[in-house]
Amino acid sequence: HVQLVESGGESVQVGGSLRLSCAASGNTDTTLCMGWFRQAPGKEREGVASTSTGGGRTYYADSVKGRFTISRDNTKNMLYLQMNSLKSEDSALYLCAAQDRKAWIFWGQGTQVTVS
To answer: 50 phi and psi, to 5 degrees?
Structure first.
């Protein structure tokens, strides 16, 4: 089992930047694909970005390409999401997740990002 704890969410102005962090603990495995999702009130959860085990392969939702950067530090069991040029539509609860056998099994509780 893997525990994930997000941090770094806060209120920020349009055009600002934030860096989200996700600390993984428990039965961590560097072979796990990890990612960030977000969910805004009344909307479905959407994938924002994901990264492969070593960080060599990344995926970004079209809505965040060029503005967000996902990275991971396997030596510290940390996942990050650098968010720049934030827009009001980026406001959401951001959740960290990790895969097991290609399924998103492990989830954190989320950290709130509000852009206004």
So the answer is: -145, 160
Integer angstrom CA distances of residue 63 from 79, 106, 109:
20, 24, 23
Return the structure tokens found at 114: 């509000």
Pairing of β 58-60 and β 68-73: unpaired
Vertex 43: Cα angle to 92 and 86 (nearest 5): 30
The pLDDT tens digits for 49-83 are: 999 987 789 999 999 999 999 999 999 999 999 99
On whether the CB atoms of residues 7 and 33 are closer than 8 A, the answer is: no
Tokens representing 115 are 């852009």
